[in-house]
Design the sequence.
């Protein structure tokens, strides 16, 4: 859960990028790392625990300190999970203490089953941590829109965003950094809104 | 899942005192209190030499991964991990249900000493956490001072440099 440090006026939140394998989660973090505009020293290193073939093995981690909001130093910790089905235990570990989720779906037609499976897996893993997706801010990102076989957004909305409460969704082409910051800023906004309305985050 | 209690400045000061005492006894380089989700709560000792934010994230991941392995081999009594290095070593041990104590120390120091003093330190930290749990939730920081109108652009993209 998010931590507010009263002594130093710091707010720390954990955002996890979740989704099927090869969907673009790590690419999102790489693009944020490469393009984010921060003051010197406010962007940490992108740590990637990956296999030799660049598949995420444990997680990618990017700490960023965003600009101060009314005197608060806001520290965001961005994580990705490994998308491959066999690494489910690892995904559960990374989800621990999550505050917000960006679900990165692959827009290619043939990946729809994997998208749905991954979303169901997210719900199951949250339940195993005694958390409920309905209580956690999340956004959907439909990635790889530049590919010829991308499914229509309406179809993806029907598959992944067909609930009582619809969440914000974004189209993206992560490797060109399109839609990456839009998703990140929206989840940030939703998170801060949640804290304000509840006013019961963790205090450190 | 266990969650952190509301911690106030007094708790952090208490943590700092406990960590300082540990550093004095062990001559370790840095001691951190982190939560199992990967957040750094507070630290004492040398904080300049190491990237503590990343260490906190990785140490919690390493601890949790090892705990899962221990469970898979039916080991129920798991509460610490030790990484032996040539220059610096790291020892992480459980503090209550939600936190970890991480000690970074020169490899020339004996891990036995670190383990010996880390155990009571972890207990003291856990006691302070218990106090925080039992404390009436006081008035927290007023989060309404966060102006939501400003947050649409918390993260801004760098402007592209024009190619010549």
Sequence:
């Amino acid at each position: 859960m998010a931590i507010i440090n009263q002594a130093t006026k710091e707010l720390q939140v954990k955002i996890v990028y979740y989704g099927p394998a090869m969907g673009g989660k790590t690419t999102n973090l790489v693009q944020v790392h490469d393009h984010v505009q921060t003051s010197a020293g406010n962007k940490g290193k992108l740590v990637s625990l990956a296999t030799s073939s660049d598949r995420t093995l444990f997680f990618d981690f990017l700490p960023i300190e965003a600009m101060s909001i009314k005197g608060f130093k806001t520290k965001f910790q961005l994580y990705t999970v490994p998308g491959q089905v066999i690494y489910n235990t690892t995904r559960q570990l990374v989800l621990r203490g999550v505050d917000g989720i960006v679900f990165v779906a692959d827009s290619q037609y043939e990946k729809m089953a994997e998208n749905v499976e991954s979303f169901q897996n997210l719900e199951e893993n949250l339940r195993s941590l005694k958390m409920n997706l309905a209580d956690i801010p999340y956004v959907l990102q439909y990635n790889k829109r530049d590919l010829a076989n991308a499914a229509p957004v309406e179809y993806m909305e029907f598959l992944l965003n067909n609930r009582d409460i619809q969440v914000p969704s974004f189209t993206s082409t992560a490797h060109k950094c399109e839609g990456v910051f839009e998703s990140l800023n929206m989840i940030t906004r939703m998170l801060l809104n949640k804290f304000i309305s509840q006013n019961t985050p963790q205090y450190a | 899942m266990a969650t952190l209690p509301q911690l106030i400045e007094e708790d952090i000061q208490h943590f700092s005192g406990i960590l300082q005492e540990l550093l004095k006894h062990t001559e370790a380089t840095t001691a951190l209190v982190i939560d199992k989700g990967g957040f750094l709560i507070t630290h004492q000792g040398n904080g300049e030499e190491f990237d503590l934010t990343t260490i906190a994230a990785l140490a919690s991941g390493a601890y949790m991964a090892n705990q899962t392995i221990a469970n898979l081999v039916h080991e129920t009594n798991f509460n610490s991990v030790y990484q032996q290095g040539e220059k610096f070593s790291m020892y992480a041990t459980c503090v209550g249900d939600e936190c970890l104590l991480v000690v970074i120390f020169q490899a020339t120091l004996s891990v036995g000493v670190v383990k010996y003093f880390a155990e009571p330190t972890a207990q003291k930290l856990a006691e302070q956490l218990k106090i925080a749990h039992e404390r009436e939730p006081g008035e927290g920081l007023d989060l309404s001072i966060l102006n939501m109108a400003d947050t649409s652009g918390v993260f801004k993209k760098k402007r592209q440099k024009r190619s010549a």
Q: What stands out?
A: Chain A has one domain: 3-199. Residues 180-198 of chain A form the longest helix (19 residues). The longest strand of chain A covers residues 56-69.
